[in-house]
Specification:
Oligomer: heterodimer
CATH architecture of the largest domain in chain A: 3-Layer(aba) Sandwich
Structural class of chain B: alpha+beta
Number of domains of chain A: 2
CATH architecture of the largest domain in chain B: 3-Layer(aba) Sandwich
Strand order of the largest sheet of chain A: 3-2-4-7-1-8-11-10-9
Helix content of chain A: 25-40%
Largest interface: A-B, 44 and 51 residues
Helix content of chain B: 10-25%
Strand order of the largest sheet of chain B: 5-4-6-7-1-8-13-12-11
Number of strands of chain A: 11
Radius of gyration of chain B: 23 Å
Number of helices of chain B: 12
Chain lengths: 399, 480
């Protein structure tokens, strides 16, 4: 029976570039910016890194194929370096590679870096996807907002919620994240918005308006992992460790079988339950301190509250409107602004979420710092509601 | 006896209001003001002669065993491909058996009646599906822009349960060039209307009709319905008068509410006539173009039992007015509208992939697991039912005619579409199976979860760099 990786892997250091429209920066600049902070935080030399994983989703957009761009940008010492890609969950996938390398004992110190250079397309939104030849001949003319917007139609139909009520609930999600983003110097979007702003914004994909969509940003985030023992021997304390790291990929059930109703993420439900089991979380609504979820769109965050088993089915709009997930609520969600305002450089986002949880656990989150931060969850999702990869990671102190 | 065994039709539901065209172009061509009345059928951006033909053929084949079709011919002067058999695309979309012969017929406005004569003359017992469709382009500001329509018709021909006996035909061939369209040209070039009427319509068509009546020994006053697919006012009555056919036999040329559907028009009018006909009616169909064809049918008692379908009359009822002339120009590639950078994505089609997946991509064939019965599309190697998972257990399951409902949807302003917002969503098929598909022909603000839809064969993408048209199936409102 596998014993999992709970408390076998510690975060030695982390770094994150300033996210945003980084017209000044190439992918190399973004990676080095995150890496310099990370390695200084870890207090080691680059020669001590024994393996590395890098994540980029749009590989032709500024970074290139293979792991060579990461190895070259960071001048890694001829170690094994692997590029991973799992749509918007790519960052979590790189983190998992490094975590497994340490947990297995294959190496003492491993690096995970995620980077995305998106603002070289010439237009707003994500670059066009280039599905493989078979898919391109029959896939719907789908974009990210259009894929996720469909959650709203199915959720409303399932729970009998009016269009206006749902629109207000998802507006609250965005207003909250904008308020949080104001306090984050590294965030892409740092302007508060009102509910009226969100409700009256131009429609991108019915019913999602401009403020229901996350920022499309350039950025990079980085983590150096080791064992708790090595972390302590290097003078770290308290030490932040991984309590659980679970990924679930769709196998076609949602897209092609007849059961899934289109209103939720089957994979998130599976991955989060496995993560709670691994971490020993009995009741997430009571046990979690902070969560960073994949709020690519406001409605994604809304339904994810139920898929993480925190809000009961059909009650996420009520919890959201009650302020349960606000910065002063019971479980603050997106305390750093989330994808919505910190920004969403695809390959970096999973690691960026962990960066904030790491800072909060160590009491280093400045104005955003919450009290009594103990158990933190990140949720990173790649793909579309009907076919996706969900990554759930739980981190905490190993005192 | 040989004759027509089935019929169907399709007119796209968009109806361009002629008044809006005249208002836009009258400054340049005041003469078009006389044509400002009524409406003409206009294709959606994702419709061409092939998709029109498929829709008419599906209408025709409802209730007919497709395995019994042995031949297909497709007549049009707006075939999307000059060298790729267009009838073959239609056959694939209809999932007709592989062992059939197929033929494209083109080169004249008479191609439709000529293809029908050929089918009737050569029928060997196996069913012959004769499909006609046209989507001709007209220069902005021209008369043709107002008189042309788009549409399609289909008939099956054979010796089985005949609903209209084929009595005979007569053809005249004369290189009368009232108009022409040279290779590589988009638009027709016309000579003077008065000359066309007097020396063309009123001489060649009567000559063909008279030849037919003489050959068959049928008296002119025994003709119940005369089909003259000519738009100029007075052509039908004039030809009736010249041939002795009663004036009341002249059929509506559909100019008021459809327009001239080109090669398709004689059969579109024939289908409309059959829809309204009683057993024992004699219907004479004329075709005009570098001469004339004349065909005579007599409906049988079997017509009374022919199941009702959408057909031409139903299509004409399912209309949506279009008053945006700029949209018409854009849909037809007549205006270089700004499309944004997202439209620049390369649309090359891997022909190897298309071939391997042709059943799914053209015929909309999915799978049915022989172990657990689960329907699924696309058909895959391992059954998608999580409680089954059987390998290599799926047999072909046609999905094109299955009713379905919308499970989730959106109207996307970000995705590039010629007709934004791009509507798409997940549809759930009755009996099982689901797919995320593009929607078409939807009315703004009318889509909702649980809305009934039917699948239609449409243009998916156009590869402008290489001139390739990629087809696939889309969801359309069931009543549209």
């Amino acid at each position: 029976m596998a014993s999992g990786i709970k408390d076998k892997v510690a975060i030695l250091g982390m770094g994150c570039a300033k996210f945003g429209e980084r017209y000044d920066a190439d992918a190399e600049d973004l990676m080095v910016e995150a890496f310099e902070e990370c390695i200084a935080d870890a207090g080691i030399d680059v020669s001590e890194i024994q393996a590395a994983w890098g994540s980029t989703t749009f590989d032709e957009m500024g970074v290139g194929k293979s792991a060579i761009p990461y190895a070259q940008a960071l001048r890694l010492p001829n170690i094994p370096v692997t590029r991973v890609e799992n749509y918007c969950a790519s960052g979590s996938e790189a983190f998992r590679g490094a975590a497994y390398a340490v947990a297995s004992g294959a190496c003492d110190i491993a690096l995970a870096i995620g980077v995305e250079k998106l603002k070289d397309t010439g237009f707003g939104g994500l670059p066009n996807m280039n599905p493989a030849p078979p898919n391109s001949q029959w896939w719907a003319n789908i974009t990210a907002p259009g894929g996720f917007a469909q959650l709203a139609s199915a959720y409303r139909a399932k729970h009998g919620i009016s269009k206006d009520d749902l629109k207000r609930a998802i507006a609250h999600v965005s207003v909250k994240s904008h308020a949080n983003g104001v306090l984050n110097e590294k965030a892409h979007l740092r302007r508060p918005i009102t509910e009226e702003d969100a409700l009256n914004a131009p429609i991108i994909a019915e019913p999602l308006g401009l403020y229901d969509c996350c920022g499309v940003s350039d950025g990079a985030a980085c983590a150096i992992l080791t064992t708790p023992e090595i972390a302590k021997s290097l003078g770290k304390g308290p030490v932040v460790t991984i309590k659980a790291l679970q990924i679930a990929a769709s196998n076609g059930t949602e897209a092609s079988f007849n059961q899934w109703d289109g209103s939720h993420f089957l994979t998130t439900r599976v991955a989060s339950q496995r993560a709670y089991d691994e971490a020993g979380v009995k009741n997430p609504r009571d046990d979690l301190s902070l969560i960073e979820v994949h709020d690519c769109f406001s409605v994604t965050e809304l339904v994810t509250m139920e898929d993480l088993h925190i809000s009961q089915e059909g009650t996420a709009p009520t919890d959201v409107m009650d302020g349960f997930y606000d910065s002063d609520g019971t479980i603050p969600c997106q305390i750093d602004g989330g994808l919505k305002c910190f920004g969403h450089p695809i390959g970096a986002s999973g690691i960026r979420m962990l960066y904030e949880m790491y800072l909060q656990l160590l009491g280093r989150a400045a104005e955003r710092q919450r009290d009594e931060v103990d158990m933190c969850l990140t949720h990173n999702l790649g793909g579309f509601p009907h076919e996706n990869v969900a990554a759930v990671c739980i981190v905490g102190r190993n005192d | 006896m040989v004759g027509i065994t089935g019929f169907g039709g399709y007119i796209p539901r968009l109806r361009l209001q002629r008044a809006t065209v005249v208002a836009a172009n009258q400054w340049a061509n005041p003469g078009i003001a006389a044509l400002a009345k009524g409406e003409r059928a206009m294709a959606n951006w994702d419709e061409d002669a092939v998709t029109l033909a498929v829709e008419a053929a599906r209408d025709c084949l409802a209730g007919i065993d497709r395995e019994a079709i042995g031949q297909i011919s497709f007549a049009s002067t707006s075939l999307p491909f000059t060298d790729r058999q267009n009838a073959g695309i239609v056959a694939a979309a209809l999932s007709l058996p592989a062992a059939i012969s197929a033929l494209d017929v083109t080169g004249s406005q008479r191609a439709g009646t000529s293809a029908l004569i050929a089918a009737l003359s050569a029928t060997n017992g196996a069913g012959h599906l004769c499909v006609v469709a046209d989507k001709r382009q007209a220069r902005p500001g021209s008369t043709q822009e107002l008189t042309y329509g788009v549409g399609a018709a289909a008939v099956t021909v054979g010796a089985g349960k005949v609903i209209a006996d084929f009595i005979g035909h007569h053809s005249i061939t004369e290189d009368f060039v009232d108009h022409y369209r040279a290779e590589g040209r988009r638009f027709d070039y016309y000579w003077e209307e008065r000359w066309i009427r007097q020396e063309g319509h009123l001489k060649l068509i009567p000559a063909a009709i008279s030849g037919l009546l003489e050959k068959t020994g049928v008296a002119a006053d025994a003709i119940d319905r005369l089909i003259v697919p000519v738009m100029s006012r007075g052509a039908g009555p004039g030809i009736a008068k010249a041939t002795g056919i009663p004036a009341e036999a002249v059929a509506d040329n559909l100019q008021a509410n459809c327009g001239d559907t080109g090669v398709a028009h004689p059969l579109v009018m024939l289908v409309a006539a059959l829809e309204a006909a009683k057993p024992g009616e004699r219907i004479l169909v004329a075709g005009f173009g570098q001469g004339a064809d004349a065909l005579l049918f007599e409906t049988t008692d079997a017509l009374a039992d022919y199941p009702a379908r959408r057909g031409v009359a139903g299509s004409l009822e399912q209309r949506r007015e279009e008053t945006n002339y700029i949209k018409y120009l854009t849909f037809n590639g007549l205006l270089d509208m700004e499309r944004g950078m997202r439209a620049e994505q390369d649309k090359q089609t891997a022909l190897t992939t298309l071939h391997r997946n042709r059943d799914m991509l053209l015929g909309f064939i999915g799978g049915r697991c022989t172990k657990c019965g689960t329907l699924q599309i696309p058909k895959t190697r391992i059954c998608v039912n999580p409680n089954c998972g059987e390998h290599n257990s799926q047999v072909d399951e046609p999905f094109a005619e299955k009713p379905a409902r919308v499970m989730s949807w959106t109207a996307d302003q970000l995705a590039y579409s010629i007709d934004p917002p791009a509507h798409y969503g997940m549809v759930q098929f009755e009996g099982g199976g689901r797919l995320m598909v593009d929607f078409t022909d939807v009315d703004p603000d009318a889509v909702e979860v649980d809305m009934a839809i039917r699948m239609v064969f449409r243009i998916k993408d156009v590869d402008e760099a290489r001139g390739f048209v990629r087809y696939f199936w889309k969801a359309a409102p069931a009543g549209a």
